[in-house]
Amino acid sequence: MLSAIDRRERIEAALRRALDPVAVEVVDESHLHAGHAGARGGAGHFRALVVSARFEGRSAVERQRLVYAALAAEMGGEIHALSMQTRTPAEWRAEGARAER
């Protein structure tokens, strides 16, 4: 079985290959779900932020589909649950500017 760090790195690498992001952050939140039925087999709970120009002009659902497609090999195996934020570079910069105020 892969360690939590290996799983996180593998997920991040898959997102980088498929979406060419300017930023990607994957956080393993499996420890927050200890005892959860879906996590007993080793699959984890992850949170991801993906910032990619490939999201330009796409709806939130279309963006999520791109992420799920990038992680198809890990879904149901390495990944039990995935929450995500998908941003274009412009959206990410705008959010950073608001946060700095």
Note down, in words, how this protein is organized:
By secondary structure, the chain is of the alpha+beta class. It has a single domain, classed as 2-Layer Sandwich (GMP Synthetase, Chain A, domain 3), CATH 3.30.300. The protein has helices spanning 4-19, 60-70, 89-100; strands spanning 23-28, 44-51, 79-87. A 3-stranded mixed sheet has the order 1-2-3. The longest helix has 16 residues, at 4-19. The radius of gyration is 14 Å and the shape is globular. The mean pLDDT is 83.
Counted by DSSP, the helix tally is 3
By DSSP, the count of extended strands is: 3
Biggest beta sheet summary: 3 strands, mixed
- What is the string of SSEs from the N terminus onward? HEEHEH
Shape: globular
Helix content: 25-40%
Report mean pLDDT, rounded to a whole number. 83
Into how many domains do the coordinates divide?
Answer: 1
Which CATH-level-2 architecture? 2-Layer Sandwich
| CATH class category | Alpha Beta
Strands of the widest sheet, in order across it, are 1-2-3
The radius of gyration computed from the alpha-carbon positions, rounded to a whole number of angstroms, is 14 Å
Name the CATH superfamily classification.
BolA-like
CATH topology: GMP Synthetase, Chain A, domain 3
Low-confidence stretches: none
